[in-house]
Amino acid sequence: MSLLDYNEIREKKVIIYNDEPCMVVSSHVARTQMRKPTNQTKLKSLVSGKVFQAVFQAADRAEEAEIEKRAAKFLYAQPQKNEWWFADVEDATNRFKLTSDDVSDIVKWITEGSDVMLKFFIKDDDTEIVIGAETPIKVDMRVKAAPPNFKGDTATGGKKIVTLENGTELSGVPLFIEAGDIIRINTDLGEYVERVEKN
Questions:
Q1: Is 155 left (phi over 0), alpha (psi -120 to 50) or beta?
Q2: Tell me, what's the pLDDT at 17?
Q3: Are strands 169-174 and 159-164 parallel, antiparallel or unpaired?
Q4: Are 42 and 56 in contact (CB under 8 A)?
Q5: 109: number of Cβ within 10 Å
Q6: Residue 169 domain boundaries
Q7: Which SS3 state, helix, strand or coil, does residue 108 take?
Q8: How crowded is residue 105: how many other Cβ atoms within 10 Å of its Cβ?
Q9: Considering its fold, how many domains does the chain have in total?
Q10: Between the chain's N and C termini, which has fewer beta carbons within 10 Å?
């Protein structure tokens, strides 16, 4: 168990607040001349899903929740039901359901069969709650559609927007990339890295 100082309670951290695991959605450390600094946060309960505001004073500390990561595969999505299904890599019958809020950071970078890391909060009684998922920093995806090149375009070193196999639009892609090519993407930055395979 580690304790976070008030200014270490930042976005993406999971803390225990009122005996519940809460994801820090946003944080802003405010310093004024006359008062002591405070960290104004927005927290999301990982049990109820409710989002609320909490203010931490300079003397406050918060317990960082114990999070375990486990390899999984993305199976399929049913957006109309707000369901994204994943299976444990070790045991495919062990399946987990997440919502759009849980997968909002990764949904652009996954297709059926994609490798992900599921994040679990371990409660005191050893029961587990799935609280989210993350993709590798670099993923390879096939380009479904790309605007045609025109003679002379490549000389200017221009960029274009392409559509990936899952419908995600990616900008800043070199003009020589064509439909059918497989490209590598940095998921942290949401940027093209290189062409892995030419169509």
A1: alpha
A2: 94
A3: antiparallel
A4: no
A5: 23
A6: 138-197
A7: helix
A8: 15
A9: 3
A10: N
pLDDT in tens, 122-173: 777 778 888 888 999 999 999 999 998 765 555 556 899 999 999 999 999 9
pTM of the model: 0.74
User: Domain boundary residue among 134, 164, 189?
Assistant: 134
**What is the domain-level CATH number for residue 57?**
2.30.30.30
Please state the length of the chain: 199
- Give me the CATH number covering residue 144: 2.40.50.140
Residues 6+ apart with CB under 8 A from 191: 172, 185
Burial of 67 (0-12, 13-18, 19+ CB in 10 A): middle
Amino acid at 67: I
Please tell me the distance from the alpha carbon of residue 111 to that of residue 103, in angstroms, as a whole number. Answer: 12
Structure token pair of residue 111: 């297709």
- Quote the pLDDT of residue 157: 64
Average predicted confidence (pLDDT) for the chain:
90
Tell me which H or E stretch contains 28: strand 20-30
